[in-house]
């Protein structure tokens, strides 16, 4: 199953861009000639007066960690159900609105940004081809949510048939489709629907022919993990599904943990569903998937985000059998149409190699190497009757290759230059559909013909609402504190002057092995039109260069991520792209820690920071419902060395009284299941109490949305307008 890509992921908060490799001279922080002036100490652009922040009393709580007593003045802000906290959040929202709503140019930004956000996402995504029917998620503004359609015949988007429209189910626009899975014969589809951007609700089954809902609703429990999944059996009479303990099942503190795999037979009572795979770790996160012929179901079980992973396989007429344990370092297993099991292994091959064994009698120790490790990082393997298609990452951008079933190289699948392949769907006769985009080409679906080797663009394309023909992307390299070479990509207009005066947005991520790949984001057009520049740093902690790149930026090595980011900022100064007074940081939900570290470690380097989501208190993180899942990436305070690392960079604890901090906009959603909104509350309170600068520090907390998945269109538009309005004001940009 390919997870649905939310349109919000392509909204301006991402602004992640990769570029073409270049031959730029490599320099690093050591080339700096002197100290930078403080960006936060500069005079703000003219604008309305900002109301003083609401009173925030300090209520110190002390806790001892390995002999060190740590005070927490704002722990009381963690209780989101408290009337005092709700009142405090409401006061901050009113203060933020009173400031942002009357800033000059806001209405003009709303008009242009709305167009970009509405049509800045793939029109079709999350394809599945089952029983000759092509299923797809469809995005068509002004609808508030994407909906599920079938396309018969394929390549004819005007022949789409609406199957499940969440706005029909809930006209408020607050119900969304998390994901869907069609049965092997294409006759039924199971859809996970959730409300309020909570990422995970209940499974509902629909008949594809009539569009009517059939069978019963199957709840998946109050879990925090977004990867709940479904896998149909061969006959389409039932499905395996993952769920967390229901209310009254086990201890109350275990809700949101101990995920298991159950089997549900259609029309049978849900209460009779029995576990098909249990006795799993507390932090188990499970993805199940049905093979193309329906004879097998694979289960990938990860122990926490980025933690040890094991794989199981269910064979028709039998039960689940473990294929690989954590020590085997297997990233992916896929069943081929010939009954062979293809395995992407990272053992002694951090960029990945492909092994083959039998799906009926898997024996990893006796598996043969089909595709050895290469320069690119293997992401997925898709076996067809005659071929193996391999999707890989080459430092961020994608590449697609094919091999015969014995591993003999066949060649490249032509894709856009410096681009990303997000999804691949197998068709008949070894043909493919794949979704491809670059940061100058809008997302579109292409068909690859195995017989001719040619690629044709289909009619299923995202509208290109912005023209980037006047832009250029330069690939730079900077040198981090420890000498590691860090890729930096810069998107700018061709006529931009390198005089240090360009307003610039710098972004990055650096965690959980996530690959930052090229994407088409038309909102960048609004930034380039005012002479702006966008840069992305491919820092360690991500997966662009394999497992070693990830491990160098996790646990006690997390400071490398921040050092890489600072080196990239300095490289922008050296190249005279911008200067610190013109530099802003923009963080997606996955990069709030990076934004927090930048605010507290180098506040002199940036004029403004916008951070979405929130992970700032690293000592209290693992005690939040979702924070336990983050321990494999960040570490635990129970370990002395990991505690010292966490406390050493924890943004909330590194705020210093009397220090001038840059203009900061903290955005969070009260329904965020993976970034507890209390982090943003506490960070805002601490910064406001400490800063000596007059730069605005604002908290924007949405009461009925979460992390962005499933956010209604109008919410996404207004948030984007707030971000740009804030940045234009703080950087002194006047829209022409």
TrEMBL record:
The keyword Phosphoprotein does not apply. Residues 1-24 form the signal peptide. GO terms for biological process: proteolysis. SUPFAM superfamilies: alpha/beta-Hydrolases, Peptidase/esterase 'gauge' domain. GO terms for cellular component: cytosol. GO terms for molecular function: oligopeptidase activity; serine-type endopeptidase activity. It is an enzyme of class 3 (hydrolase). Residues 28-57 are annotated as: Disordered. Its EC number is 3.4.21.26. Residues 523-732 form the Peptidase S9 prolyl oligopeptidase catalytic domain. Residues 54-458 form the Peptidase S9A N-terminal domain. It comes from the Bacteria. Keywords: Hydrolase, Protease, Serine protease, Signal. It catalyses: Hydrolysis of Pro-|-Xaa >> Ala-|-Xaa in oligopeptides. This is prolyl oligopeptidase. It comes from Polyangium spumosum.
